[in-house]
Amino acid sequence: MAMKTGEQYIQSLKELKPPVYFMGEKIENLVDHPAIRPHINAAAETYDLAHDPQFAELVSARSHLTGERINRFTHIHQSAEDLVTKVKMLRALSQRTGSCYQRCVGFDAMNAVYATSYEIDQKHGTEYHGRFLEFLKHVQANDLMSCGAMTDTKGDRGLSPGQQPDPDQYLHIVERRKNGIVVRGAKTHQTGAVNSHEIIAMPTTALGPGEEDYAISFAVPADTPGLVYIFGRQTNDSRKIESAMDAGNPRYGAVGGEALVVFDNVFVPRERVFMCGEYEFAYPLVEKFAALHRQNYGGCKGGVADVIIGAAATLAEYQGVSRAAHVRDKLTEMVHLAETLYCCSIACSSEGSPTPSGSWGVDTTLANISKHNVTRFIYEIARLAQDLAGGFMATMPSERDLRHPEVGEYVQKYLQAAAGAPAEHRMRMGRLIESLTTGIALVESMHGAGSPQAQRVMILRQADLESKKKLALRLARIDA
Ligand code: SF4
Ligand code: FE
After folding, report:
1. Other residues' Cβ atoms within 10 Å of the Cβ of residue 136
2. Is 448 in the pocket of ligand 1 (CB under 6 A)?
3. pLDDT digit string (tens) for 129-182?
4. Is 297 a catalytic residue?
5. For residue range 206-245, what is the model confidence (pLDDT) as tens digits?
6. Contact, 66 vs 137, CB < 8 A?
7. Which of 101, 297, 318, 342 is catalytic?
8. Catalytic residue from among 211, 258, 278, 287
9. Contacts of 63 (CB under 8 A, 6+ apart)
10. Distances (CA, A) of 338 to 316, 349, 427, 430
């Protein structure tokens, strides 16, 4: 089997039995749970579109290991063109789902570990890269979804991993055996964790001497004993159960489902360990992963912005104001911001370069700027969409009231606007804007792929201020 369909992906999840908790209860049927199913539907699109003639070129690739046609989410980038295609694929998927399809995290983790494991082997004579290649072949052959697990819980943020009073605040080795390692800790905000086949763990920060036990990377099946998942609440998530219409984007959800993933003494077999103590490679791995994941955001959020713009423009028509100059100007501004996001992701991809392993990585500065723009522009796009939508998107009655035998006709009469636009359509569009521009949808744009300060650190680190000073000194005719 090379490429799964969405249905085959969903069926394959039924064979996994990870312990997942939500709202104080253990979920027995993950695939059909209303809080989780929308995220599974979104991830399933990454499978279905690989078979769709319209999208197949974007969503599939040729494996550099086997020559087989594979899903692009399991591919190792072989060129700048691959990197550009990735961004186009993400925008297309976001336009279709208006949500997060979660699979990019494992995709980026695989590319980052691929390049880093090669570099560790070059320096230390280890055999991590060969092990990783075996894992990669398994992922490609079975078209698996992986969860890239980077973010540790961090405990006291003022202390480094080795200084924490509770060492479990960073995932670490608690036992070394001949045939593998035992690890303990947790990874937080893990997008797509509960509906992935594999968990790929990586360090979350730079590490130093004495912190060897934290310098680990490995992959384990998602239902490995000792893994426990606690699924996070989302804004208005009870609406997923109460009413499809009130949920706004009922099929795919507002954003990806995240979980706290606990590693309670998890055994990792030796052949699945890709870094074990080489602390000086922790930061290079973090940097590679972060750059690849930040590359995504102009494609991913550019596509979500397209949906927000489309919803705002449609609602303006429903409300009879689509020809007003200020409405057109706000829509223009939203398009300008969305395309600026996209430009940056395309640019960091086009300016990509090969790593020593042969895989291709993005321009790190431009990738960080791409994500940094998202922390601002999506808020502005959301603000303009809310401005255009009007207050009703936050105050309107529920779907149950719309359908109520006594008050339903009032809701229909008083929620309708321009002729030909039924109240229900106006309400659906308002709810879609509400779900795309409030709560977790915005927080994800701020903190997903790293908080703004993480980007600013990398931007300044790579800015080479000394060379910029020299430019100024030369023109000012100052000898320094
Ligand atoms: Fe992919 Fe992250 Fe965007 Fe989700 S938020 S679709 S994982 S880039
Ligand atoms: Fe994200």
Report:
1. 22
2. yes
3. 999 999 999 999 999 999 999 999 999 999 999 999 999 999 999 999 999 999
4. yes
5. 999 999 999 999 999 999 999 999 999 999 999 998 999 9
6. yes
7. 297
8. 258
9. 69, 70, 74, 75, 140
10. 19, 17, 25, 20
